[in-house]
Amino acid sequence: MSIESYINSVKKTPTSSTSKGSSACASRVASLLLVLFRAMQYLIQPIMRLLHPITHAFSKSRSSADELMIMQIEEYHGMSTHNKVFEASELYLHNKISPSTRLLKIVQTQKETKFAIHFSNNQEFEDIYEGVQLKWKYNSISKKSNYPSKAGKKQQFFELRFDVKHKEKVMDAYLPYVVETFKAMKDAGKIVKLHTLVRSEDYKVRWSAINLEHPATFETIAMDSEQKRSVLEDLDRFVKRKEFYQRVGRAWKRGYLLYGPPGTGKSSLIAAIANYLKFDIYDLQLTHLISDMELRRVLLATTNKSILVIEDIDCSQLKLQDRKNSSKKNDSESNQLLLLGRLLNFTDGLWYSCGEERIIIFTTSHKSKLDPALLLSGRMDMHVHMSYCSYEGFKTLASNYLGIKEHQPLFDEIESLLQKTEVTPAEVAEELMKSEDADVALQALITGIKEMNKRKEDEKKAKDEEKVKNDKEKVDHKQLTYFI
């Protein structure tokens, strides 16, 4: 029986006189129930029909909560191995910071020129990849140190949440996409670093990095144009031949020897190469190392896409030879005797071939003093002679320092002087810096070159006179010996 039929039956039920009061009350209750029934029929039920999709979706989402996949990406794997996926995710998510974000951490150290943005704890990001909804969350947990004098370490990790049915797409496509995007972003905005060795304790040596702020480029260095073109072509060919090196079974590395007098721009060329390729520089000084194990450790700590620089290799060679010829005072000194040979063996061997896109640059002022073993192919594949300043190099320097782009009346005299005088680009640059007025600076350069020429002629004359004097003394000594 329906509620409406029941109410009508109550109204029609006969009652005695003694129960008229109670029947009237029952009739009023029945009428009220009828009103409530009508209200439910015409108001509440339509509302429930409207709310049904929402409640259904809510219940469905709750039922699918058990199908949510969570991936945790920690900063380190194990004790100290850096997780590259964490680094990639961190830079990738910087582009996912929405304009509505109201909480950001801003950092600027003394060595940085720009503000750096860091994530706040529990900060969340949303992403969509090929229709897949993804949610990121950054977490940072501080761990207490067991030593009161030392600060606790911070554990950082990302959580990536998505529907478990998209697991294969996330693993096979989305995460590789994040890593590739990270590489492109890193190369585009990379700040080249200069790494040098520092010793924190007696037996601990590590790399310390600062920003390389050297402005040298291939457009600004004073080199012969043909030589500059040759170096650029060799660099471009090297970075594009990953598959070639793999196919022929060679480590993806390239060795250069820069040789020439001091002041001819060897260091500037190294900086120009680093700025051109966006490769970090590792300045290796063998005298800072005391053992073969330290050498191996610092070389393994260098990264891909980097330049290992060993300057003045002839001086290192002589120092090592002197140590070898000298008496061995202790074990520490004896460990330093063969560092140069160990360096070459390491760069030739299996350990250094574990990295990719490595460039090794040796510099020397005296190529003739080098051991022939250093000049083997595979160690120094390309030899670049950094010579004295040519007329073409002078025009580059004039453009850099004085902004001169066209031929000037004094250029002809400078060209004539440079053809018969050995002047380094550093010496030319020093003269051009003496005045901001182009005519004054060029005249100062002319005067300076003439003075250099005269000074070198006087030095040559003095050497010739000294040689004649020594030869005469030798002849007189022989004659004296003969007569005795």
Description:
The strands form four sheets. A seven-stranded mixed sheet has the order 10-9-12-13-14-11-15, with helices on both faces. It has a four-stranded antiparallel sheet with strand order 1-8-7-6, covered by helices on one side. Strands 2-3 form a two-stranded antiparallel sheet. It has 484 residues and is an alpha/beta fold. Strand 4 and strand 5 form a beta hairpin. The protein contains 15 helices and 15 strands. The longest helix has 46 residues, at 438-483. The chain has helices spanning 3-12, 20-63, 84-94, 167-189, 225-239, 242-248, 266-277, 292-300, 313-325, 331-335, 339-348, 391-402, 411-420, 425-432, 438-483; strands at residues 68-74, 76-77, 81-82, 105-107, 116-118, 124-129, 132-142, 154-163, 193-201, 204-211, 253-259, 280-283, 306-310, 358-364, 382-385. Helix 3 (84-94) crosses helix 4, helix 12 packs parallel to helix 14 and helix 13 (411-420) packs parallel to helix 15 (438-483). 49% of the residues lie in helices and 18% in strands.
